[in-house]
Amino acid sequence: MPSKRLFDRIDSIQLRGVTKKYDDRFAINDVSIDIEGGELVIFIGPSGSGKTTTLRMINRLIEPDSGTILINDQNVMELEPVALRRNIGYVIQSIGLFPHMTIAENIGLVAKLEGWNEKKIKDRVKYLLDFVSLPSEMFMDRYPHQLSGGQQQRVGLARALLMDPPLLLMDEPFGALDPILRKQLQEEFYQIREKLGKTIIFVTHDIEEAFKLGDRIAIMDDAKLVQIGTAEELIFHPVNEMVASIVDSGKKFKHLDTLKIKDLISPLECMYVHDGSLDIESAISSMIEKNIEIAVVSNGSGPLGIVKLIDLLRMEDKDSKIADHVVEIPSFSRNELLSSSLKIMQKNGHSMAFVMTDEKLSGFLFPNDAFSQVIG
Amino acid sequence: MDKEHKGVDSLLLSDLIEVWETNSLTLRTIEHLTMFGIAIVLASIIGVFLGLFLYSRPKIAHPMLNLLNLVETIPDIPLLVLLLPIFGLGKEPTIVASVLYSLLPITRNTYTGLKEVDLKYVDIARAMGLSEKDILFKVRIPLSLPMIVGGLRIALVFTMGVVTLGGLIAAGGLGAALIAGIQLYKINTILVVGFWTGLLAVIFDGLAGMIEKRLQRRYGIW
What we know:
CATH class of the largest domain in chain A: Alpha Beta
CATH architecture of the largest domain in chain A: 3-Layer(aba) Sandwich
Oligomer: heterodimer
Number of helices of chain A: 14
Distance between the termini of chain B: 52 Å
Number of strands of chain A: 17
Distance between the termini of chain A: 51 Å
Radius of gyration of chain A: 22 Å
Helix content of chain B: over 70%
Structural class of chain A: alpha/beta
């Protein structure tokens, strides 16, 4: 049964004195926030501070004891929950792809319940898989357990986008991924966000992620909203010590001129390194097994470049060596100045670089990540 | 030596054919599997529905499962005898007894399977906008299938045993041939029918086991 399209776009989301208690403990206490359409607002705070509870109230997974939540001036408590939720995309850390359904069935489930015809569902699923950089013909018929963590999270996002909801709720979507994969997906998400043009409410406990992705950041503590503002506002005008300490990791890199690459290095783990003589087939299975999406290709004496899992999966000739498909990326010594390295990378359009210590590969540099850390 | 060996071979084969024909084991097998099939289908339908019902009424789940447990503790021959006054002799009491024994594993596994579906799947299903009915049919039941098939597998073994015992109360089937063999003290008949009944049980158990494994593998549980 098709459910009503409740809103084509978000003009505003307003929380007015929203309170929720479990026994005599406040989960959230008198929280009021105004969110504009098209904004990406990040909720951050210690665990138990009420950020996930706030998120889950917007699609009525949790209902407030008092206060109101308005989307485009409609009280969510007066909307039918199933229809409301089909108008709001939801992505969570544990992803929760249904293990008994193929990837295509997972993504298309709600469309099927809405009574779309097979062809329309298939086309939409294909479009979404390609949108999240998974070759559709390769992934549609697989089961979730055959995918790596990063691939599953991409499917999770595709599933949330199925009904083209104007609002996305994301609860630590990259939280379970290893640091390098997390940065890569943040990077991609940052890029597709423009294309999406959606209002997004995003929960994280990672201040770097907040600075990198958020238009505004809401800091929560002990069931209350402590402060909401842009990164600059929080850094320059924190309302209290707690806010100051949370944003501190962004603040310490104030002087870009003196920063060296080693201050912002993402350390390399040896599981990323693959020998250039490996054929594509074995590289793919090794990367899936290790749950990584990029691999450093090395020829014994040093790194040749990188290969991305997505690209390898698309290759026709699975017997050829990965050394033949390497994408070269710049490499810098860890003691070089950050500013000059970033300029070089920006000029050449590179999104990552190797960092070398004594001629040996020791880590990666992600420029967007670096920028987000130095905004203070 | 060679000759003697050959003699044993041909003796076995001819005995087998003779036992099979004099006891009309083809017909007996058909009777046996018919009762077996009816009992299993009935027990599956009733068991799964009862499991679903108990899942929707958690308050009566425990007393009901305890009752089924009680039925399970009655030894099989007394149970057959208890059913005689109600259903008379023959196939009916045998099928009823089989169903009664099979209900516990199927109902219990259905109920437990539905109840113990990982809550993260239920939560995301709700968040995606599935109604409670959709959650039951699209998420809870499919995710409980490996567990339900596990219950069915136990029921298959019980039922094979009870249907064989039905021979005692004129239900026909392979049990009848076995009883006849025992009463006339025909070792060959006892061996052939006993072995054949056992083999059938192993085959059905193996088939159900294969389905169970396939479901588990498909769901990535193993």
